[in-house]
């Protein structure tokens, strides 16, 4: 946003620029005060500035809860920071002393000038207006505060304090993004539009982003939007919806003649406004639209693998899948409960319960190209790739670490100069060919009695369902889970009860592998196949991974933590 100076007068609040945020000091007085350098050193040694590296969304589900503000003393009480009472919009916002406004919550900063009223003005002082995301009940709202910033402890900072703070607030990411928002007005029990306008849009606007909003008006409208949009106009396509619109956007871009350029240029993300918000939960760690909007602004541009699906009905035009493919109990529980979508996620749990109680079985043939077959091999694969991601995360953090007087310039992304070309879309195992000789057929005794067949690329399929805890964004594989429909209810029940922890994959009754590709030949009568929650043709399905094809936004360059390594 433009840093044009503005004039303002009292009241204002004194602050210090810290390593992790702006530290609020006591109110301005014309008399002597504690040395800024002394206070800064005291805070650095005895406390912190609100480093919110592990700060999450405050989602009402409780899965990813933490505080937005970290306070440095009991003076910063909860009632002072909360925003539950109505206030005069023109009233100046004041925060308690020793409160920290983390850089991760700062949306915009503007330099200001003081009106010359003859009052003494401290040396080494910069006047700024800071807009930041402040908690209000279960959401974030943009708030503005006027600060008098002591710059004496940063002699090499220069004169543009607003720019300095913005550089720290948007480390490793681009500011002032141009965002195309696609809203499915029927998503989220019909509340998607309201959720976006009231919860997400204010955060995006306060940051200075350019926003263009389009609503879908018919089935697969988002596919047409993606096919025809001017990709040079936007940095991000944000889907204010459930998981259906991201699926359509990716497939719309996939149909373009310039698809390599489209996937190179655009980042695709989700503002969770639907009944299924797996992409936001896995990438941003939240199903709360306001926190997801903040994550959109602050997260790192990253490339993730997606999966390419082929069936006889569309063998000449394969389709992309970013989330999952399923057959059996999970597929029927998803697709066959569409008529009660209005009850929300509970419809899925109800469907699973009914199918499990009926002891339904779904015969099929399954062929795999394994990447890690056994659970021990899978764990080794996971740890190896997780170490790589941790090293990347450390590089990102160190590249944007600021010393007390000399900031280091950070990377804008972790894309490693990956270039998408037409070759990026080529399939290694064409559908029309026979099953390759190095693929393995799963034991027919098991596949004739399949209960759950589920493959996926993201760890969460719902806020409290960590179905693929070993999923990684760019390891070149997809995760696979298979259960036997003959498993006793006494064993199935604890497996399903452990989905929130992800420990179901450790159970001996659960097959869990990493694969590069598979072919599924279903034999059950009157059943369904679900891809990204969408009803696909009920016929042979072949899927393989397309590595690092899609650009998205990930916190610290990885999926939300699942703790799989400690299971």
From TrEMBL:
<dbReference type="InterPro" id="IPR050187">
    <property type="entry name" value="Lipid_Phosphate_FormReg"/>
</dbReference>
<feature type="region of interest" description="Disordered">
    <location>
        <begin position="28"/>
        <end position="63"/>
    </location>
</feature>
<feature type="compositionally biased region" description="Low complexity">
    <location>
        <begin position="29"/>
        <end position="46"/>
    </location>
</feature>
<dbReference type="Pfam" id="PF00781">
    <property type="entry name" value="DAGK_cat"/>
</dbReference>
<protein>
    <submittedName>
        <fullName>KLLA0F20504p</fullName>
    </submittedName>
</protein>
<dbReference type="InterPro" id="IPR016064">
    <property type="entry name" value="NAD/diacylglycerol_kinase_sf"/>
</dbReference>
<dbReference type="GO" id="GO:0005524">
    <property type="term" value="F:ATP binding"/>
</dbReference>
<feature type="compositionally biased region" description="Acidic residues">
    <location>
        <begin position="49"/>
        <end position="59"/>
    </location>
</feature>
<dbReference type="Pfam" id="PF19279">
    <property type="entry name" value="YegS_C"/>
</dbReference>
<dbReference type="GO" id="GO:0046512">
    <property type="term" value="P:sphingosine biosynthetic process"/>
</dbReference>
<dbReference type="GO" id="GO:0005737">
    <property type="term" value="C:cytoplasm"/>
</dbReference>
<dbReference type="GO" id="GO:0016020">
    <property type="term" value="C:membrane"/>
</dbReference>
<keyword id="KW-0808">Transferase</keyword>
<keyword id="KW-0418">Kinase</keyword>
<dbReference type="InterPro" id="IPR045540">
    <property type="entry name" value="YegS/DAGK_C"/>
</dbReference>
<keyword id="KW-0067">ATP-binding</keyword>
<dbReference type="InterPro" id="IPR001206">
    <property type="entry name" value="Diacylglycerol_kinase_cat_dom"/>
</dbReference>
<keyword id="KW-0547">Nucleotide-binding</keyword>
<dbReference type="InterPro" id="IPR017438">
    <property type="entry name" value="ATP-NAD_kinase_N"/>
</dbReference>
<dbReference type="GO" id="GO:0001727">
    <property type="term" value="F:lipid kinase activity"/>
</dbReference>
<feature type="domain" description="DAGKc">
    <location>
        <begin position="174"/>
        <end position="313"/>
    </location>
</feature>
């Amino acid at each position: 946003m433009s840093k044009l100076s503005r004039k303002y007068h009292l009241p204002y609040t004194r602050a210090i620029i810290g390593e992790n945020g702006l530290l609020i000091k006591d109110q301005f007085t014309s008399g002597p005060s504690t040395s800024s350098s002394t206070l800064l050193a005291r805070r650095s040694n005895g406390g912190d500035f609100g480093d919110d590296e592990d700060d999450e969304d405050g989602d009402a589900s409780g899965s990813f809860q933490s505080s937005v503000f970290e306070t440095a003393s009991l003076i910063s009480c909860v009632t002072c920071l909360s925003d539950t009472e109505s206030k005069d919009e023109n009233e100046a916002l004041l925060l308690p002393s020793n409160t920290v406004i983390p850089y991760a919550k700062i949306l915009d900063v503007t330099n200001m000038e003081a009106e010359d009223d003859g009052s003494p003005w401290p040396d080494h002082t910069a006047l700024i207006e800071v807009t930041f995301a402040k908690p209000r009940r279960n959401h974030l709202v943009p708030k503005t505060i006027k600060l008098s910033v002591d710059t004496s402890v940063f002699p090499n900072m220069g004169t543009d304090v607003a720019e300095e703070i913005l550089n720290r607030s948007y480390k490793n990411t681009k500011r002032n993004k141009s965002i195309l928002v696609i809203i499915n007005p029927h998503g989220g029990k019909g509340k998607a539009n309201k959720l976006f306008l009231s919860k997400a849009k204010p955060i995006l606007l306060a940051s200075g982003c350019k926003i263009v909003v389009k609503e879908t008006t018919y089935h697969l409208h988002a596919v047409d939007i993606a096919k025809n949009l001017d990709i040079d106009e936007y940095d991000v396509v944000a889907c204010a919806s459930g998981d259906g619109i991201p699926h359509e956007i990716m497939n719309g871009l996939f149909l373009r003649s310039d698809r390599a350029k489209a996937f190179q240029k655009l980042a695709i993300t989700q503002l969770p406004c639907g009944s299924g918000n797996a992409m936001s939960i896995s990438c941003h760690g939240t199903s709360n639209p306001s926190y997801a909007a903040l994550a959109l602004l602050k997260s790192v541009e990253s490339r993730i693998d997606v999966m390419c699906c082929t069936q006889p009905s569309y063998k000449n035009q394969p389709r992309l899948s970013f989330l999952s493919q399923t057959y059996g109990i999970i597929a029927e529980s998803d697709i066959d409960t569409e008529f009660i979508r209005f009850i929300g996620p509970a419809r899925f749990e109800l469907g699973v319960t009914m199918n499990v109680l009926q002891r339904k079985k779904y015969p099929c043939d399954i062929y795999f190209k394994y990447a890690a077959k056994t659970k021990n091999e899978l764990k080794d694969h996971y740890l190896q790739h997780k170490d790589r991601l941790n090293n990347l995360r450390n590089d990102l953090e160190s590249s944007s670490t600021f010393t007390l007087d000399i900031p280091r310039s950070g990377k804008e992304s972790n894309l490693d100069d990956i270039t998408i070309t037409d070759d990026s879309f080529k399939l290694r195992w064409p559908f029309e060919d026979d099953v390759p000789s190095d693929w393995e057929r799963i034991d027919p005794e098991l596949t004739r009695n399949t209960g759950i067949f589920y493959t996926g690329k993201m760890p969460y399929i719902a806020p409290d369902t960590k179905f693929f805890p070993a999923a990684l964004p760019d390891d070149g594989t997809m995760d696979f889970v298979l259960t036997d429909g003959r498993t006793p209810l006494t064993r199935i029940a604890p497996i399903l009860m452990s989905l929130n922890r992800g420990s179901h994959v450790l159970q001996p009754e659960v097959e869990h592998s990493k694969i590069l590709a598979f072919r599924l030949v279903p034999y059950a009568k009157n059943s369904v196949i679900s891809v990204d929650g969408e009803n696909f043709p009920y016929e042979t399905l072949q899927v393989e991974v397309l590595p690092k094809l899609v650009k998205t936004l990930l916190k610290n360059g990885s999926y939300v933590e699942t703790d799989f390594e400690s299971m």
